[in-house]
Amino acid sequence: FFFKQKTAYEIAQRLVGSEMCIRDRSYAYSFQKVYLANIVTKALYEVYNEKFAADEQSLLTYKNNIVVIRQSSVNTPPSSVAIKFDFDAAKGDTDLLIKSSQWVKLEEKSKLLSSDALLSSVLQNTVKQRITIPNGEGYLIYSNATSGKRGMITLIHGGPHSAYINGFLSSVSLYLAAGYAVFGVNYRGSLGYGQAYVESLLGHIGEYDVSDCAELVQEACAKFPDIIDPNKLFVSGGSHGGFLTTWLIGKYPTMFKAAIARNPVTNVDVMASISDIPEWTFAEVLSKKYTYPPLEEDAKKFYASSPISHVDKVVTPLLLMLGSKDKRVPLSNGIQFYNALKSRGKKAKVLFFPNDSHPLDSAETEVQCVLNGLQQLGENMPQPPFL
After folding, report:
1. Per-residue confidence of the chain (387 residues) as pLDDT tens digits?
2. Could you say which of 211, 239, 305, 309 is catalytic?
């Protein structure tokens, strides 16, 4: 249930009067695309127009032969586009169907850029660099509006079966405006690289994903020594990204100057008994079906696969952000890790959001997360003022 990516024709939405489906939010490497799928042949066709090129697309709505999508890129805020398909004229030729489609922008990009000179300059000068290792890839994002070496914030997605996508994020824009570089990583288990890549992580969380993230950071520093200051590395992630954040600062205690973890998995053994998806713990750690309580040897592997097992080695200052209504990764996971750090005299802070659950995505909370995150980075490795 959690790990099999259904094929396009199984989960696509039918376009009236044709054999075609619209497939929403398909991951292709670090990009999110919308595809047409032929129900009969099962073939996929990217919905693409060179004049409307974007790194992230998602379906908003459709009716008959008209599709409305949302799209953005790292330095381009979201906008909506309507696409009209002429099925009669195409006569079953899908390539012709896509090439002859009519695209119309429904709304202009955010007016924020025109009213904020700093942010506008930062985004207009944004550079995106792909970095690869044998088992993963990442995208380094920085702005030439900032000169010289700078701190780098590694962003780690959750899931783990999700992906870092090169779409627009207001938080990334603010990090760039503050003078940082941002590094979004995709490790083994991420979507967009095939089913075998997704399943390769099962039974190996806390191993493959951790080493992939560390190797990607090291590769980024080696490839871009004029951009990245290796003494100003930071890491941030939520959910499984928080799991990896807390793992990394335990396994590589001198790599990062500060860390931020949002609703992190820190003790799988505890999570297995009270999470709303206990199956996740058995599949990811043990690669087997859920049966509770776990066997003694399974409980030992739960602990060994958890960041809490390396808490003694942590020296990196950590900021925890926890949603009090989180049922996915119970509040106790974050609290336990915080208490373990404080009892050992480590530097840690925790912020509670009493009205938020797992995503921490209410408008007010998103703002608080970004602002407190910037404060956490600045306190532990001050950046020079933006020039």
Report:
1. 233 333 333 334 545 445 667 766 678 888 998 888 777 777 778 888 888 888 999 988 888 888 899 999 999 989 999 999 888 887 778 888 888 899 999 866 555 555 577 788 898 999 999 999 999 999 999 999 989 999 999 999 999 999 999 999 989 999 999 999 999 999 999 999 999 999 999 999 999 999 999 999 999 999 999 999 999 999 999 999 999 999 999 999 999 999 999 999 999 999 998 999 999 999 999 999 999 899 999 999 999 999 999 999 999 999 999 999 999 999 999 999 999 999 999 999 999 999 999 999 998 999 999 999 999 999 987 555 443
2. 239
Alpha carbon dihedral 94, 96, 100, 106, in 10-degree steps, equals 20
Of 24, 209, 212, 326, which residue is the catalytic one?
A: 326
Give which of 102, 246, 220, 206 is closest to 153, Cα–Cα.
220
Question: Exposed e or buried b for every residue in 147-173, given b needs 16+ CB within 10 A?
Answer: eebbbbbbbbbbbbbbbbbbbbbebbb
Active site residue 239: yes
Q: How would you classify the pairing of strands 228-238 and 66-73?
A: unpaired
On the CB side of 359, CA atoms within 13 Å amount to 5
- Give backbone dihedrals phi and psi of 149, rounded to 5 degrees, phi first: -70, 155
Bridge partners, 132 (sequence order): 137
In the chain, what's the furthest Cα-to-Cα distance?
71
Please indicate whether residue 358 is annotated as part of the active site. yes
